[in-house]
Amino acid sequence: MNRLLQLVAVAAVAATTTALVQSGRQPSREAAAVRAARASQNAAIAEHDLDKAASFWTDDVVIRSALGRVIEGRATYRSTLGADTATVYRRDPDRVDVSDNVRWPLAFESGTWTGKSPRGGQPLIRGRYAAQWIKRDGRWLIRAEVFVALGCGGTGCSRPLAVQ
């Protein structure tokens, strides 16, 4: 039985590697660094450590929020995130692409996001997002994000659309 499990594992690795090579998307150290930065920011948001969460944004970060509000600048984004005590946000990347031009230290991330109640963790709002990252002084930082709300639950459904 162990031999069968080994063969299945080898086949799975081979299929994944073949799919990545055929799609032209090779896993990279830089993509892994972007994913690690996102995981660290998610942890900071969950811990309500707003200074640490904000340290992943450039000073001139621009955000289009899930319901349409435009947020410009690290300080404004930090303040906005801090004012929303009813929601704990999490971003889960499903794709990270890094520029192959060394003169363009950029990455594109896309995935799903959720906003849950800090009391009990009930889902309030969810959707998809995209982010532009830039590498500065050896660190990956978020330069821009776009969030789109695609579903809600409970009190999350009563949030107003910011742009009509």
Integer-rounded radius of gyration: 18 Å
CATH topology: Nuclear Transport Factor 2, Chain: A
Oligomer: single chain
CATH architecture: Roll
The poorly predicted ranges are 7-24
Describe the structure.
By secondary structure, the protein is of the alpha+beta class. The protein has helices at residues 2-23, 29-46, 50-54, 74-83, and strands spanning 57-64, 70-72, 88-98, 106-116, 123-136, 139-152. It is 34% helix and 37% strand. A 6-stranded mixed β-sheet has the order 2-1-6-5-4-3, covered by helices on one side. A hairpin with a 7-residue loop joins strand 3 and strand 4 (106-116).
Task: Report a brief summary of the structure.
The protein has 164 residues and is an alpha+beta fold. The chain has a single domain, classed as Nuclear Transport Factor 2, Chain: A (Roll), CATH 3.10.450. Helices cover 34% and strands 37% of the residues.
Features:
single chain, 164 residues, alpha+beta, Nuclear Transport Factor 2, Chain: A, six-stranded mixed β-sheet, 4 helices, 34% helix, 37% strand
Helix-strand layout with pairing:
Elements: H1 2-23, H2 29-46, H3 50-54, E1 57-64, E2 70-72, H4 74-83, E3 88-98, E4 106-116, E5 123-136, E6 139-152
Parallel strand pairs: 1-6
Antiparallel strand pairs: 1-2, 3-4, 4-5, 5-6
